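User: My instructor asked us to take a sequence, write out its structure as tokens, and then describe one feature of it. I'm not sure where to start. Here is the sequence I was given:
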Amino acid sequence: MSRRFSLFLMALIIQVGAMACCVAAEPEAAELKVGVLANWGGQQAERRWQPMMDYLSERVDGARFSVVPGSFEELNQAMLAGQIQFIVSNPGQYLHLSNQFPLSWLATMRSRQHRGTTYAIGSAIVVRADSKIKTLYDLKDKTVAASGFYALGGYQAALGLMRQFGIDPESYWKEIRFLGFPLGPLVFQVRDKNIDAAITPFCTLEKMVERGVVRRNDFRVLNPSRPEGYDCQVSTQLYPNWSFAASEQVLPHITKQVTEALFELDASDPAAIAAETLGWTAPISQLKVIQLFSNLDYQAKEVNNWQPIQDWIEKNQHWGLTALALFLMATFYHIWIEFKFRQKSDRLLQTERELKQKAIQLERLHSAAVVGEIGAGLAHEINQPIAAINNYSEGGLMRLQGQTQPDTEMVALLDKINQQSKRAGAVVHRIRGLLKRHETVLEKTNLLDVVDDSLDLLKLELERHQIRVQSKVNGEPKFVMADKVGLLQVLVNLIKNSADAMAESPQSTLKQIFIEVSFNEELVTLSVTDNGPGLQEEPHKMLASFSTTKEQGLGLGLAIVSDLIKQHQGQFRIDNCPETGGCRAQFSLPLLMD
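Assistant: Let's start with the prediction itself. The structure tokens for your sequence are:
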């Protein structure tokens, strides 16, 4: 009996020891830090976001998340130093960081206010109710405060608004003060008459009124508007909401689990309630923010380049005149030397040109072979992510459409993504066909639809260069037997060439592109005419492979266009247009006979 008890006790000890070893061998959870913009102070940021970190810690295997609140500058330094692995902030800071550090954008937050919108960032310019400041123009020579220079809703959006009104804020205001976080002192400074106006993020004033720290009747918002479905007044247009992004240091499987957990967060979850969100959605387009920053960067560049020179000349006129005189003397001396050199070296230059032409011809032959191999490889590699985008978008559509009350905006967005991915896939297949010399697949095609599709693709490019497009159709429209993707590639190339040619024209010049489609009994003729500078070389040279006048061009566009039209049994030609002074590209195709 005692022997059996001894064996039982020994087995029990072995089992307990094995369990202890297993427990000791369990790997510790990885500590992952999430930087959060603390626009209402560090303690408030921790109270708001720590439940979200606890939620992620439960959903992501082998990881424990914690909050690191900070200002714009503190989060930038922490990210660049590798002290945080994730960041939750506005898209302005995301775009600023992405220029210095590789980031993966995981999700965009849906606001718990304003019916769950994903556009909830903007600026409200606040003044006292009894202030004489009624419009933006009244801010001239006034003292203004904001949270920080890189704050999208707290400063940058207001800069964009002022420039839309033709106002340069840097020289318009008497002083701009950056008070940092929290946001409350911005409104308090206006209340106490220490400043004339404050640039506050969207809904800052309403939140302070709700907390009972200020009275709503004591303040006004300049240039006010309240978009339908929103709860607060705003001075500027609205931009995308905060985003959740990961650095490249995070392992892919953790990034995937974090993304899935964010998408699955229910609006009734305590973490969502504490974070003041209805959940997270796929990252939305940042075109508005990119356009805003592009405009601000251009203005800043213009000021930074010339203003210091003007200031220096005003303070040191004698040195400026001396430098100008030396510059003119050096310029004239250089011109004289160049003139003498050209007089004695015409023969040498001619010989050098001939040698260069020979070298260019040899390089073209070599480049054609290399481009064929590289292009086929690229088309094959690009086809895989395009197929993935297509599958994800179709899956998202099926999932949304299966819901009782699907998000119509998201369904429309995914549908557009799906359509564009299919179009991109067709273009890739077309390129592979061109490179491998596959036979063109022809189908019944409406050429007018191809024209409309090409203009839709280039709409933003044309608007950016302020180019006006006029279309005209002659005769009764008929179908052609053609490769629709190939014809779309032809038209996009021709219209893009015209737009590029006119991009350098002065702003005061009216830029126009004329598209004319003429149907007769057997042929359809389409011409693209612009009023740009016209061709700088002979037409037959422009149609040769690797011949280009663009600084960044490859010289393949017109060669591909000519080849595509020949495959359709058509004719293509390009020449200068005397009527407009620009260039005219024209091709003819046989019509589909009944």
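For the description part of your assignment, you could build on this observation: The radius of gyration is 32 Å. Try explaining in your own words what that tells you about the chain.
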